[in-house]
Amino acid sequence: MVTIPYQKLIDFVAAIFQRAGSSPAEARRIGSYLVTANLTGHDSHGVIRVPVYMRWKTSGDVVPDRTVKLLVDTPSLAVIDGCFGYGQTVGPQAVAIGIEKCKSAGLAAITLRNSGHIGRIGDWAEMAAAEGLVSIHFVNAAGSILVAPFGGVDRRLSTAPYCVGIPRQGQPPIVLDFATSLVAEGKVLVASRGGKKLPAGALIAPDGTLSEDPALLYGPFEAEGPRDHSKGRGAISAFGEHKGSGLALVCELLGGALSGNGATSAPRRFSNGMFAIYLDPERVDIDNFFDGEITRYVDYFKASRPAAGVESVLIPGEPEARTRAERMANGVPLPDDTWAAIAAAARDVGIAEAEIVRVTA
Ligand code: NAD
Asked: In the chain, how long is the greatest CA-to-CA distance?
């Protein structure tokens, strides 16, 4: 395990992407968003993704420094094409359009198609909440067919995340942000690399047996070798039985089909699709009731007596805020093989050994 101060990690990841053809601004943005995923405890969506982003860049599946195209543009609606730019570039551009429209119309919706990986969807809810807006996101990940629907064993869904952000005055927003699979694929990746083990029943074998063995998703793999989810014969289970499986279907239909991104089917060029709704609560909350009622209700919710083995009842966004504070102070822990894979990606783009060694010194 190595532990790296987060600013140093952002600088290093930014250096890799700059060498790989991104402008300094884009390279820093990718570094900041990936490291934020690690800071919030979502290592599955953090710097572990550097090698795969590099592969996508080399194959032309993702293109540096793209500007989104507006295909439909009305006062409250935008249909946006991400043109296969990095999600960390076209994602914030799309969200900024939604925010601007919502601020003038009170309610707005956007769709985004053909986006590179937009990472942790909570980033986009936090961006809207920082402007005082409620946001709801339905996302799919076309090209990444990984999840079996409830009652099935064959893969039919992506990990299709769903996310809601609710701003609060003078407090961090409430951010509910999860994959509709029992675990995000990145968590299978982390487990396959010796990180946190998968929860019971996270994966399902072709015969319907539940399992926690990452080889079901990747096929047999070497400890240091690549992971290819097209090689495994099993699938990730949808979370929450028929309810989670139904929500995943809705994410595919709204994030994938409605956006023009395409719902997940056969393996293809990766792209995230998103349908997002933004609402300005001040336009609805004519009695100035909302924020005080959130405070009252959250206190009531959290005052539920904790179950055995649980320290306290938390609200969505709280675990991330705690981990962020701890890791900003003490650094970002990375398993040795994750670090080795990032260092190899750095060497591939010509970063000197001395510079790589300095990061963990
Ligand atoms: P997860 O299972 O860790 O759930 C996270 C959510 O649950 C958060 O809202 C968190 O605040 C809340 N939470 C966690 N523990 C809690 C507790 N004890 N009490 C109350 N609330 C709690 O998340 P996940 O499903 O592994 O997803 C991880 C990340 O992966 C998300 O950020 C998601 O957006 C991202 N993702 C992205 C894609 C993509 O294609 N871009 C695909 C899938 C997932």
From this structure: 61
With a 6 A CB cut-off, is 137 part of the ligand 1 pocket?
A: no
Tell me the CA–centroid distance for residue 173 and ligand 1, in Å: 15
Please tell me the predicted confidence (pLDDT) of residue 337: 85
Ligand 1 binding pocket mutation candidate from 95, 178, 323 (most atoms within 8 A of CB): 178
Tally Cβ neighbours within 10 Å of residue 71.
12
Give dist(CA 38, CA 9) in Å, integer: 10
Q: Where exactly are the structural domains of the chain? A: 2-62+330-360, 69-181+238-284
Report whether residue 77 contacts ligand 1, using a CB cutoff of 6 Å. Answer: no
Give the CATH fold of the 69-181+238-284 domain.
Ribosomal Protein S8; Chain: A, domain 1 (3.30.1370)
With a 6 Å cutoff on the Cβ, whether 36 touches ligand 1 is: no
d(Cα 27, Cα 11) in Å, to the nearest integer? 9
pLDDT of residue 132: 98
Angle (deg, nearest 10), helices 122-129 and 87-105:
40
Is 142 near ligand 1, meaning CB less than 6 Å away?
A: no
DSSP for 88-156 reads HHHHHHHHHHHHHHHHHHSEEEEEEEEE-----THHHHHHHHTTT-EEEEEEEEET---EEPTT--S--
* CA pair distance 186, 81, nearest whole angstrom: 25
Q: For residue 317, how many other CB atoms are within 10 A of its CB? A: 23
State which residues of the chain have pLDDT below 70: none
pLDDT digits (tens, 9 = 90+) for 75-95: 999 999 999 999 999 999 999
236 lines ligand 1 (CB under 6 A): no
Please give the class, per CATH, of domain 2-62+330-360: mainly alpha
Q: What strand order describes the sheet that includes 203-204?
A: 147-148, 235-237, 203-204, 210-211
Alpha carbon nearest to ligand 1 atom 41, residue: 119
Q: Ligand 1 in contact with 143 (CB < 6 A)?
A: no
**Residue 11 burial class via C-beta count within 10 angstroms: exposed 0-12, middle 13-18, buried 19 and up:** middle
pTM: 0.96
> How close is the Cα of 122 to the center of ligand 1, in Å?
8
The single residue listed with the structure tokens 């299709």 is 160
